[in-house]
Structure formats: structure tokens, C-alpha cells
Amino acid sequence: MWLLALRTLKFRKTGFIATFVAMFLGAAIVMACGGLMETGVRMATAPQRLAGVPIVVTGQQTYDSAALTERDRIDPGVLDTVKAVPGVGSTITDLSFPATVVMGGKAVDVGSVGHNWTSAELTPYSLTQGAAPGSGQVVLDSALAADSGTGVGSSVQLTAHGTLRTFTVSGIAHQDTGRKLQPSLFFADAQAQQLAASDGKFDSIGVLPAPGVDVSGLQRAVSSAVSGKAVVLTGERRGLADLPGALSSQQTVIILAAVFGSWAVLIVMFGVASTLGLSLQQRAHEMALLRAIGTTSRQVRRMILGETAVLSVLATALGIAPGFVIGRLLYGQLTGNGVISKEIAFHEGWTPITVGAFAAIVAAVGAALFAGRKAARTKPVAALAASTLQTRWLTATRLLLALFFMVNGVMLSVITVTVMTDGPTLASTAGPASVLFATGLALLAPGITKAIVVAVSRPVRALSGLSGSMALRNAITDNVRMAGAVAPVVLLIGVATGTLYMQSTEDHVSAKSYASSVLADFVLNSSTGGFAPSVVGSVRSIPGVAGACELVSSIGFVDSGGRGNSIDLRGVSADGVLQTIALNSLTGSIGDLRGNTVALSDTQARNFGVRIGDNLKIHFGDGAAADPRVVATYADNPQEEYLLLPSAVLAPHTTAGLPAKILVRADADADLARIQSHLDSVAAAVPGTTIADRSTLTGSDNQIQQILAASNYTIVAMIVGYAANTVINTLIAVTRRRQGEFGLQRLTGATKAQVLGMLSVEGVLVAVVATVLGTIASAATIVPYSLVKAKSVLPEGSIGSYLAIIGGAFALILGATLLPSWWGMRTPPIETARSPA
What we know:
837 residues, eight-stranded mixed β-sheet, 29 helices, single chain
């Protein structure tokens, strides 16, 4: 039977090519999502500035298994602990902080970083001119010196920790490693500590082993010595020490990869099963002949599995390289949209490759067993008579599978409404619901298709005449074949509609919520590390300014119920917060938000079990613990949940160390242009300051939402593209298989125009049925998501998106049906009529 399977592949090119393409692309997509998963799990980056040492000791990067978003600096005592570990040859401390050269009142090379001079050995940097820095001196790297036009002995203005100072350039340093690093400035170690306001702490410690000491053994010893105080990085993970907060994106990447990977697996399995099932259905005559000449059910099943095995192994093997390419493209979208740092290395090893291959093979084998079951078990006498037309489609197995998928889809919808709360995990239950429900509907498509076709038969005949009558008879008598064309279109419409409207609802609600919570007319942004405390005072003194408020954004943890709950933290100025941020139903005194205090929503207060006057135990984004006293509560906004802390308290626990924004509210009757002019004067005195209006502030604060939206659209477009490919393959295979039927119609008097008209009506019927079922399937995602997110059954978004999806489906169906038919009818009908039906 294996030899027969190989020979069969040669003579059934159309069906096998369609099945092969489905397996090939499916395996590649699953491998790509697996590559994203591996990238998120490993979360590694090749060391750049720290490449000169094999071991790096840095601050704790997690709290309660959650990644920290801010740099956790390590105490000086850790340095003594590391030095005392046997086998340590030498240690090199590293301290980094924002520092920018200012020329003519403008920042040079925004994003430059200051370091202690000792850390130059880590890269390494070497002096090419001058000497090491002393007090009041600085060493510039060669690129920064060239950009600023300064040399040894020149005076240069620098801004660090919000203050403008003048330094003398003592030397120029250069690194020739070939790595592209941030522009760097080096200060004497004591001065670097002062500029960074680090209280004697370090960012990292580079460890060089003593001669002859094994690196892996030393790494274990150092890890044991600093356990609970710091973490030890080796290999490609050393680069994480230079990327504070990079691990915070790990969960996002893993969730994206898991959610869309599971979607991809389901859709790939459906696509392969649909295509292979249609191919086997079209070979009913062949299977019947095999059974009639004495072939056993087992032999037929072995032949089908043999064909499938050959195709699946070849397809998955060829899908490895495209899978890596697609994975890189998805990774590029994530890094390009800011979901993860560009420095994080993309990894796709044998694990995702194996998973992708396994998924494609299992899908193919499962489809072969399911679709070939009837042909393999049909009695030989009945097989030949029943081979020309498949009328019995509803079996106990199909019904149970359909109910399984539909019930699970409904359960996910119900869970979304009754259990899930408005948050980043809402889509994890709402999204797959449409996929499962669409799969269930597709399994019942033959019966549903026949019912819908019968319901619309009168208007179709009235509008389309003879062509419509022919199409209706074909659709009613061969509803199983038509359902094979309907099924992939249902999935395409269901997934595309559900995902697009889920995202548009998210975008609309988030933007509306933030716009209603922000009262500021202007915002000052710093690109040089943040604003000194005196700047907000200067803004408040401008005539016509009703209030000004510093704004610090971070993510911390509330210790409730024995575990840390991640939550947004916002640092504000007590004197200006009421004028710039909407706080409704305020209880307590927001003016008391000074020192070790906190304000939170009334719902959060109930959830955390605190009232005004109680202490709330929290951890900042750098892992530091605190227990601020609750001084005020305000009305809850599910879209904007955060804790309010004094900016002077929160800022030191962020990587920048200073507020990066100042919100400004004007008086109701103030001249906004005049205030803008005054703000321009303030900005001119603080290098690196830009001024934006309220709309820009709203858009920038919603940046994370837009980043995730872009990534979602990219991955969903890939999945929808696969579904579209399945539609095209299925329809082309069906059409080419019917060339003999078209030839007979033309021999009995039908013209080419009438045959094409019949196919057009059939295509419209397929599109109508698929639109109805796909829309129902998409509702399993849209309705529960909208109920939770927008408190409405209907989603937010333009009707144009839905019309575009339906229009695209119509175009795919008609194009994949009419073009192959028109091409095939170039052959004389007497020749095409001889082909098997």
C-alpha cells in the first residue's frame, strides 16, 4: 500500500498540491510563533558594553516572580561579598545614568549615558587623548567628541540629573569592538555617584576570574554568595544588565506567542483537515473501486495515511526555513513597535521546529483518519453505487466534534463576561472563542448550507434565471461539496471580524477613557533624563497657569493576599494634581499627598482592604518596599487603574530618577498662545525639553496600547492570510475537479457564459452562507468582549472594516472559482468531459 500511495501522489496533483501548501504554510506559521515563544522564554541579549567580563553581578530583576520595570541598584556591601569569593581575580563596578552634552542651548546626541571611569574597562574603552577624569572633568567617547566638536582641555556644558553643569574635557576614549553603543561620558567614580544620586549603590559588578579558574564554577560560587541580594549573569544573558526593565516585556511576548500560537495551531489543523478532507471526498469514486476489487478497509486506511505521511514529512521539512523567516518578521514587528527591545536576541531552536512539525503532522493524520473513515469502512457492494455523490454527512463523530468545539466556544464567551475583568488578559478568552465556534459551525456546514440555500432559492431563481437554477440544484444535491468550500471562508470571516472589532473596541475605549481623565492643556517632556524640582515651580509662576503637576510613570506591586499584584504607579505633585488629572468623588485630602502617602480608587481600597489612614504595603518598580499611608480615595475608572504617589517619592525608584513630564493646566479665560510663549522660554532654559498639547499627551500615554495593537494586527494578518490561502486552495481544487462536469454541460448545450454564470451564483451562495456563519462565529468574540470593555453588545469601530472583510471574502471566492474555470474551458468540452467526476 505504501507503493500505491506514492504512485497515487503522481496522478492526483491538484488535491495533493493544495494539501501540501496547507501543511507547508501551517508548519511554518506554528514554527514562527514557537520562535517568538522561545525568544520570550530565553529573553537574552548579547552583551554590548559589558562584553569585557565573563560574569556580571547586577540587581534583582524580579519580585514575586514578576519582572521589575526599573533598575534595581545593588548595595556596596555586595561588592565586598563578591571580592571575598575564592577564585575572583578582580571586580569592576559599573554605574550608568542619563548625561547629555549641551551646545548652544541644545542637547547633543540625545540618549547619551554617563558612567564611572572604572567601568570603561568593561567594554573596554581606551584613552586615545588626554588623561583619566578627576573632579570637575569628563572623558568623552570619540563619537560624542566629534559630534560636539570638543577636544581635550575644552569646557563643555552637561546636563545630568536635571542640572546643567560645566566640565573640562580631560580625555577622549575609543572602543574598537565594532559594537554600536550609546554615546558615553565618563566621570571620576566619586563624581559619578554624586551625579547619579545613587547613594553609593552600583548598577552592576563585572567579575574577572583568577588565572586558571573555571568560569562556570565561579559563577555558581558567586551566585551562592550573593543569593537574595543580586543576580549573576553569564553568556548572552549578560546583556540584560544593560537593559533595565527588559524582562518586563517577557510576559507580553510569551502571552502574545502563546495566544496566537494556539490560534495558529487550531487554524492550521482546521485548514489542513479541510483541504485534505475535501481531497479525499473528491476521490470517493477511486476509493469505491478499490473496495470493490477486494481492498480491505485497513489497506485503504494505510494508503491514505501513507499519502499523508509522505506529504507531511516533506512539507514540514521544507517549512523550517520559511518558519524562521516568518519568525524573524514577527520579531521585527515586535521590536519595531517597541514591544521588546531591539537588543533582545531572536531564537528559534529545535523545540519550536519540532512543535511545528508535530502540529502539522498530527493535523494531517487526524484529518486523514476522520475524512477517510467512510471510504475505508464502506461495504464493497454499496461503495460503487454511492461513489458518485456523497449525501450522508452527519455521523455521530462529526456531531460530537461539532458540539465539542461550539460548547467550548460558548464557554469561553461566558467566562469572558462572567469571570474576566477589563484588563490585558481579556482577549485570551474572548479571542479563541470565535475560532472554536467557527470550527464547530464548519463541521455542521453541509446541513446549514442546504437549509440556507433552500431558504433563498426563490429570490435567487427570480434574479439569476437559468444560471441560478443550475447553481441551486448543484448546491442542494451536492451540499457536502459546497460545504467544503464554505468551511474555510467561515473561519476567515470569523477570525478577521472578531479580532479587528475586538481591537477597535479596545482602542476606542482606552483613548476615550484617558482623554476624559486628563485635564492638562500642555505637557513638557524631557529627553535628557528628567526635570529638576525647580522647573515645575517656574511653570506655576507663569501668568494664566491654573496648575502644574510633575508626572512620573512606573509599575509596581501591591502586597495583598500574600502576593504581589502588578499595578501602575503615578507620581504627581500634590499642589497641581487636581487641576491636571480628573479625580471624581474625592474622599480625604489629596493635598496631603506628601511624603510616605498614597491615594487610590475606592474600588482598589475595597479590594486591598484599606481605608483612609491605613497603611498600604507596596513594592516600587525597582523592588524597594514601602508602606505609604492612604490619604485619599477617588472614583474608580476600570480603564485607568493606578496608585497616586508623591512624585518626589516615586521618582527615586525609577531608572531615570526624575519626573520626565510636567502637566500644565491653563485658566479658563487664559490666552493659550501667551502661555505657550512663556513655556517656550522655560523650555529654552532646560535643554532637551519639548512642549506638546493635550491631544499629543493623550496619544503618547496610549502608546503601549498602540504598540500592542500593531503587533496584534501583524500576527492576525498572518493567520488570516493563511486562512485566505486555504480558501483559495480549496476553491481551486473543487473547481478543477469539476472540469468534467463543465464539459458535459457544454456538450448538452450550455454556453461558456451560462456555465460561468452558474459558478458565479454558486460563489455568491458560498459567500452568503459563509458570511452568515462567520458573522455568528465572530459574535462569540465581539459580544462578550464589548460587554466587558464598553458595556455594550455592539463593538466600537467603523462598519467599513466589516464590509471590507466581506468584500475580500467575495473577491477570493469568485476569483478562485471563475479564473480556473475560465482557463479550463479553453480546452474542448469533449476532452474535459472524459475526466473523472
